[in-house]
Design a protein that fits this description.
Helices cover about 65% and strands about 0% of the residues. With about 120 residues, the protein is mainly alpha-helical.
Length: about 120
């Protein structure tokens, strides 16, 4: 059975909810313990909607929002692996691939800027 592509904000909501459920079971869950997911998830959904759909906008600085976290190089690998696995589990198609590619770019850039490596 084939999975659908990411075609709407509803698909983004499903992706992000499932992704964070996965993160909360991962070995980087400690980064999310004190996070208010009720207010955080809509921001993340807004970001991914803006990434895929031209009629959406996002105006926050991702690097600045994460500067306070004690992140390690391994954390980015786990985050990215969980993200790709979630996309692959739920979706396939052009937008699913674009989303995974952008996540890879974001993880790389965030790691370089936050860890200065």
């Amino acid at each position: 059975m084939s999975t659908p592509d990411i075609l709407s904000p509803t698909d983004i909501t499903k992706l992000i909810k499932t992704f964070y459920d996965t993160l909360l079971l991962s070995n980087i869950k400690h980064h999310f313990v004190n996070l208010n997911l009720e207010s955080h998830l809509p921001r993340i959904e807004s970001f991914w909607n803006a990434t895929l759909f031209p009629d959406h906008a996002y105006a926050q600085n991702l690097v600045e929002k994460h500067m306070h976290l004690p992140l390690k190089k391994e954390d980015f690998a786990v985050w990215l692996s969980c993200f790709h696995e979630t996309v692959d589990e739920l979706f396939s198609g052009t937008n699913a691939e674009i989303t995974k590619n952008r996540a890879s770019s974001i993880a790389y850039i965030m790691q370089k800027k936050l860890l200065k490596d």
